[in-house]
Amino acid sequence: MPAVSLEDQPVLLSDRLIEWVRDRDIGERAAVAALIEEGDVLARGDVRDLLVVENEAVVFCDWPRFEAQYRCGLVLDEGEDAFLTLVLATAFPRLVPLWKVEVLGDRRLGIVLRTLARLAGSDSVPVGCRA
Questions:
Q1: Which of 1, 63, 117, 125 has an alpha carbon 20 to 30 Å from 93's alpha carbon atom?
Q2: Half-sphere exposure of 109 (CA within 13 A, CB side)
Q3: Number of H helices, E strands in the chain
Q4: Are the C-beta atoms of residues 21 and 29 closer than 8 Å to each other?
Q5: 62-99 burial, b for 16+ CB within 10 Å, e for fewer?
Q6: What is the pTM of this model?
Q7: Kind and range of the H or E element at 50?
């Protein structure tokens, strides 16, 4: 079996998003970190197709398009809807009722709390860290 060089390995979507968001505002950086850390929502093809614009040259999150279409274009359970609503409010500032946290569950609530810490400027919680 021939050895695979690093150049031949595909770059993960999460790595491409981290590279793109590096120069974006703190809200987008926190939102992308939350999506990557949570993992399940971003792994859904329908979510990725609506949120992420990706080709060989570019990758980015199209927050306005996603916000305009995700509730009518995706089948989400309460937790997914609440999580995406809070992530969107982080990336693309909007008022969000805090009662949304009631349906997140412990894992997603922890991610949202770490996202808020990032939004407040804390660099102590790296992307992908699970407490």
A1: 125
A2: 9
A3: 7, 2
A4: yes
A5: ebeebbeebeeebebeebbbbbbbbbbbbbeeeeeeee
A6: 0.80
A7: helix 45-51
From residue 128, give the alpha-carbon distance in Å to each of 9, 30, 66, 115.
21, 11, 23, 11
- Backbone CA torsion sign across 99, 100, 105, 111: negative
d(CA 76, CA 20): 27
Q: Which two structure tokens, joined as six digits, stand for 16?
A: 């491409």
**Rounded Cα distance, 60 and 62, in Å:** 6
Q: Which two tokens stand for residue 122?
A: 């804390």
3-class DSSP assignment, residue 130: coil
* Cβ pair 22, 13 in contact under 8 A: no
Alpha carbon 5 to chain centroid distance? 29
In terms of Cα–Cα distance, which of 43, 48, 24 is closest to 118? 24
**Rounded CA separation 26/7 (Å):** 30
